[in-house]
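Quick question, first post here. What does this chain look like in 3D?
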Amino acid sequence: MVSAAERRLFWGTAVAVVVSDFVTKLIAESFLARRLPLPVIGDVVQFRLVYNEGAAFGLHVGENSRWIFLGLAVIALFVLASLVRSTRPGDHFRLVALALVCGGAVGNLIDRVRSAQGVVDFVDVGVGAWRWPTFNVADSAITIGAIALGLSLWQEGRAQQRAKEARAAEPS
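> Answer (accepted):
Ran it through. Tokens below.
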């Protein structure tokens, strides 16, 4: 990442995720504490306040989960920072993907630091008893960013493989 425009793209996206996540969690905590659940689209989408002390899908590793997952998030941010630094100039798709993951990780990290209750989750999706684990804006950004990053890495791998095959097919 070299250009000022690419830095603005990355930081603007990451900050937008962090701010959106923080504001929606504050609203969820103040409003949903008094009314559970709040139907948005009938039973399919509803807002329900949940505190998740663990990680994705309620993964829990004991009473020190808060600190373990906080540490893992910090390590993940260092790994993501190295991916950002190694991103080719002009690869805006990968920059946005990394910004989404970083912004989401920071959003959930803020919750782990500010409250022993855990990460604030409030979006509940499903039908009847079949429910997806409750999530938040940061979780959505991480998921979308991780999928986009995976696609970006896959496409890069395919391009490298095609280039390798083309070099091998050239007459000596």
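Residues 82 and 141 are 19 Å apart (CA to CA).
The longest helix spans residues 137-169.
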